[in-house]
Design a protein that fits this description.
Layout: E1 3-8, E2 12-18, E3 29-32, H1 39-49, E4 58-63, E5 67-68, E6 71-72, H2 80-83, H3 88-96, E7 100-104, H4 105-113, E8 119-125, E9 129-135, E10 138-139, E11 149-151, E12 154-155, H5 156-160, H6 162-188, E13 192-196, E14 211-213, H7 216-219, H8 222-225
Parallel strand pairs: 1-4, 4-7, 8-13, 13-14
Antiparallel strand pairs: 1-2, 2-3, 5-6, 8-9, 9-10, 11-12
Length: 230
């Protein structure tokens, strides 16, 4: 069983095909996220992005917002007003004529990265901050931790997201990340913390032994694992 896996991001949308074990069997396709990033514009771009992909039976997608049962509730790095209550899973299935599953993008990464042992947390450092929690490999209910206040007037996205990195520079951004890691360690008492996303490479501090910089490509395996029980 091959699975078309789509990563919808605030700056780019990527896609590839995986086999049932999560191995990549097609090169990545990648295009900038359309502006404005409305549901119809995103679906139109996905249709163009994957037009040359063949031989897949199912579709997995990660979306940068809160998703419940395939329906988008928030899309803070796209346009929440446009996406609220949009049935993305159903629309993707119709668009691509395949069964589809849609979850939060950090949840999809988490399924792919986590070892499946103990309480594990995955954070993604990109346009915003994504989070996923897993217990023995099973996804726990998703919380939009990125939009919890971390400082007066700022949530995690605003405090250590891409805009903050560009504005404050690497040194000050790392100072902020040290504070964020201290909070996560205290609040969640995880067995392991995996750090993924484009800005993970910009971390310069020493990490605890149970804090692991994850290979971003490993996260894409979540697209296959999302269908594993099927």
């Amino acid at each position: 069983m091959n699975i078309l896996t789509i990563d919808i991001g605030g700056s780019h949308i990527k896609a590839t095909i995986l086999d049932g074990d999560g191995n990549q069997v097609a090169d990545y396709a990648r295009m900038p996220t359309p502006q404005p990033p409305t549901p119809m514009n995103v679906l139109d771009l996905i249709k163009e992005l994957v037009k040359n992909f063949k031989g897949y039976e199912k579709v997995s997608a990660g979306f940068p917002g809160y998703v419940r049962d395939g329906v988008v509730k928030t899309a803070p790095n796209l346009d929440t007003a446009a996406w609220k209550d949009f049935p993305l899973q159903t629309n993707l299935s119709v668009l691509l004529s395949r069964p589809a599953k849609v979850v939060n993008d950090a949840d999809l990464q988490g399924i792919g990265i986590a070892s499946g042992k103990g309480l594990e947390m995955v954070i993604t450092l990109g346009t915003g901050v994504g989070t996923a929690l897993l217990k023995d490999g099973v996804l726990l209910p998703h919380f939009e931790i990125a939009h919890h206040p971390v400082k007066t007037g700022k949530d995690y996205d605003e405090y250590v997201g891409e805009k903050a990195y560009q504005k404050k520079g690497k040194e000050h951004w790392n100072y902020r990340m040290e504070k964020v890691f201290a909070i996560l360690k205290t609040v969640f008492n995880y067995d392991r913390l995996y750090i993924s996303g484009g800005n993970a490479k910009n971390l310069t501090m020493s990490l605890d032994d149970n804090m692991i910089i994850a290979n971003n490509r490993e996260g894409i395996k979540g697209g296959a694992r999302l269908w594993a029980k099927e």
